[in-house]
Design a protein that fits this description.
Helix 1 packs across helix 8 and helix 2 crosses helix 8. A hairpin with a 3-residue loop joins strand 2 and strand 3. By secondary structure, this protein is α/β, with parallel strands linked by helices. The chain contains 13 helices and 16 strands. The strands form two sheets. An eight-stranded mixed beta sheet has the order 1-10-12-11-13-16-14-15. It folds into two domains: about 270 residues, Zn peptidases (Aminopeptidase, 3-Layer(aba) Sandwich); about 150 residues, Glucose Oxidase, domain 1.
């Protein structure tokens, strides 16, 4: 009996060793293809330069839909189709001006926040600077009434993961207008949700509370927020002039773009990989989220090129409207639920095209524990982060107790240099870093497809 047990253990160890060697060879082929023959950089150049920025509901967004549909059809994926959705259409307008008119005369770069109302001409009012939403709540209404509020909670520079610093600043941006309006403010400005001190304002989404007056709201750069702080500390009475011509046009039709390679053994099981096709209407949306779009398409292209035939269906989704509504993610999840589709994993890339570090799992503990068995296979590629965390906005609506939602984690230090700005352009994406991201995601999907993420043990 003991000899039989030893023989079984020996045979199993030999099988595991051969399997790991086979996986190691295949992963090396994936990286070689991405780095030596990859299409990712040229495809990103085309998305950024031929299409450009692509806020939902715009001509650029429709052009991006056509671009993604044509590209995936040209790669001859098994199926490519458009999923109709409805998205908001908001137009920035031709005029965005902000100026200090006292105590000095100086124009300031400004970007309206997505969804803001316009000023209906030139709006002149005194400025009050308030550190945070919490401080605004404590400030008496008589000090705020009739003024332009600047909320200026900056990034915590001691935070190693910049996404942790982003959250409080994004909350200020998202809720600032209505919070200021409740106190009687006539407009709201926010210091940009950004890690560097520079002259680029960072736009982004905001919302108005029902029943609260809608006041214009916009972002200024970190350097100009510092300037206003300095003037304020000199006991100067600051007066600003703001002019925004943005406008909301309601909901309009658009599409998610979907392509897939059908599973050879279990086609009913679906592994999603995706990024969001829309971007803000400034810059070119290169890191946010052109990189994620390209990562996702390149996964399927690499599989086709290398002849990898997944057991499960691998589906690439270019989601529309992540930036200001997430109707693409919500609509896809509704479609999947109504169709009775079985999703076993979903991976999203929406943190830029920087050097890959690993993956975060919004999943059950056993999903993560099973994924960690592959650490040694990806360690040679400097993939070392395997942790509980966030999946992504677009894949979030798929969440249930069975699916593993996985976020691609690149190095975070430079992302908020470019996020939501005019500087988010193709030239600021590093070719090799983009290619390494493609290969990392393709390798993880290869392993999930081959082995699964297991079942919960009783």
């Amino acid at each position: 009996m003991k000899k039989n047990l030893m023989l079984i253990i020996f045979v199993f160890s030999q099988f595991v060793g051969l399997s790991q060697k086979e996986d190691s060879i295949q992963i090396r082929k994936i990286f070689n293809e991405a780095l030596a023959n990859g299409h990712s950089y040229n495809n990103l150049r085309s998305l950024c330069k031929d299409v450009g920025n692509r806020i939902s509901g715009s001509e650029g967004a429709q052009k991006a839909v056509e671009w993604g549909n044509e590209l995936m059809k040209n790669y001859d994926f098994d199926s490519v189709w458009l999923q109709p959705i409805m998205v908001p259409k908001w137009y920035r307008g031709a005029t965005e001006k902000l100026a200090i008119i006292t105590p000095i005369n100086q124009e300031i770069e400004v970007l309206a926040l997505g969804g803001s109302v316009g000023t209906n001409g030139n709006l002149e009012a005194p400025l009050i600077i308030i550190e945070s939403l919490e401080k605004l709540e404590e400030t008496p209404s008589e000090m705020v009434k009739g003024k332009i509020v600047l909320l200026n909670k900056g990034f915590d520079p001691t935070t190693i993961n910049t996404f942790e610093a982003y959250g409080p600043c994004a909350t200020q941006r998202f809720n600032g207008a209505s919070a200021a309006a409740k106190k009687g403010a006539v407009a709201c400005l926010v210091g940009s949700a950004a890690s560097p001190t520079d002259d680029f304002p960072h736009t982004g989404s905001m919302r108005y509370e029902d029943g609260i007056e809608k006041i214009p709201t916009a972002a200024i750069s970190t350097s100009k927020a510092d300037l206003l702080e300095a003037l304020s500390k000199g006991n100067q009475n600051i007066k600003l002039a703001l002019n925004l011509t943005c406008k909301d046009f309601g909901m309009v039709p658009s599409y998610n773009v979907i392509g897939e390679i059908k599973g050879s053994e279990n086609p009913e099981n679906i592994i999603v990989v995706g990024g969001h096709l829309d971007s803000w209407d400034v810059g070119e949306g290169a890191h946010d989220d052109g990189a994620g779009v390209i990562h996702s398409i390149e996964v399927l292209r690499i599989y086709k090129e290398l002849g990898i035939k997944p057991k499960n269906t691998v589906r690439c989704i270019l989601f529309m409207n992540e930036e200001n509504g997430n109707n693409g993610g919500k609509s896809y999840a509704e479609f999947a639920k109504k169709s009775g589709e079985k999703h076993i994993a979903a991976i999203e890339s929406d943190r830029g095209g920087f050097v890959p570090r690993g993956f975060s799992f919004d999943a059950q503990n056993y999903h993560l524990m099973n994924a960690r068995k592959w650490e040694n296979l990806l360690k040679p590629y400097n993939i070392h982060i395997w942790e509980k965390g966030y999946g992504g906005v677009d894949i979030g609506p798929l969440k249930n107790d069975k699916i593993a939602l996985i976020g691609f984690v690149p190095d975070p230090q430079r992302y908020f240099d470019f996020h939501h700005t005019e500087d988010d352009v193709f030239e600021n994406v590093h070719k090799r870093e983009l290619e390494l991201g493609c290969a990392s995601i393709a390798s993880l999907i290869y392993l999930i497809d081959k082995y699964g993420l297991g079942e919960e043990t009783p």
